[in-house]
């Protein structure tokens, strides 16, 4: 008289999730209707923007920290050199410094007068420009993230 039916429905999760969009897997079926309005290209652009922004922020943050460390090291080293010079531990040959600075100026004038880049440098610059043009969204996200990382 009291026969109980203990049959269960078996759900194969691998088959169930195979044909479902990723946002349904993450947010559940309730978000499907609004999320389906976006096409794959929009999702890829958003992904590029997020990846560019995150990597840019990390790079900017690290750049800011390393920049402060480098500025402290250079400033501290200059300060120590000035103290050593003032106390007589170091004697600076200012004529030699002036000669080397003038030599460097002449070399800069010589290289800038030609106004031509070496072919290998030009090809690298062209590669970078092509990459930036093809990945404008990624580059924009990186630039924005970099500025945010520098500010934080």
Automatic annotation (TrEMBL):
It is found in: Mitochondrion outer membrane; Nucleus. InterPro entries: FUN14. The keyword Protein biosynthesis does not apply. Pfam families: FUN14. It comes from the Eukaryota. GO terms for cellular component: mitochondrial outer membrane; nucleus. Its main location: mitochondrion. One of its GO terms (biological process) is autophagy of mitochondrion. It is a multi-pass membrane protein. Belongs to the FUN14 family. Binds directly and specifically 1,2-Diacyl-sn-glycero-3-phospho-(1'-myo-inositol-3',4',5'-bisphosphate) (PIP3) leading to the recruitment of PIP3 to mitochondria and may play a role in the regulation of the platelet activation via AKT/GSK3B/cGMP signaling pathways. May act as transcription factor that regulates SREBP1 (isoform SREBP-1C) expression in order to modulate triglyceride (TG) homeostasis in hepatocytes. This is FUN14 domain-containing protein 2.
């Amino acid at each position: 008289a009291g026969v109980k039916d203990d049959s269960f429905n078996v759900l194969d999760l691998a088959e169930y999730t195979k044909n479902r969009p990723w946002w349904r897997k993450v947010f559940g079926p309730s978000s499907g209707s609004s999320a389906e309005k976006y096409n794959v290209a929009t999702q890829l652009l958003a992904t590029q923007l997020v990846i560019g922004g995150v990597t840019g922020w990390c790079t900017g943050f690290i750049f800011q920290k390393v920049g402060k460390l480098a500025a402290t090291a250079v400033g501290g080293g200059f300060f120590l050199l000035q103290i050593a010079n003032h106390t007589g531990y170091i004697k600076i040959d200012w004529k030699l410094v002036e000669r080397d600075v003038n030599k460097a100026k002449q070399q800069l004038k010589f290289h800038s007068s030609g106004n031509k880049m070496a072919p290998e440098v030009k090809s690298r610059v062209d590669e970078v420009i092509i990459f930036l043009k093809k990945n404008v969204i990624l580059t924009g996200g990186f630039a924005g993230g970099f500025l945010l990382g520098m500010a934080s």
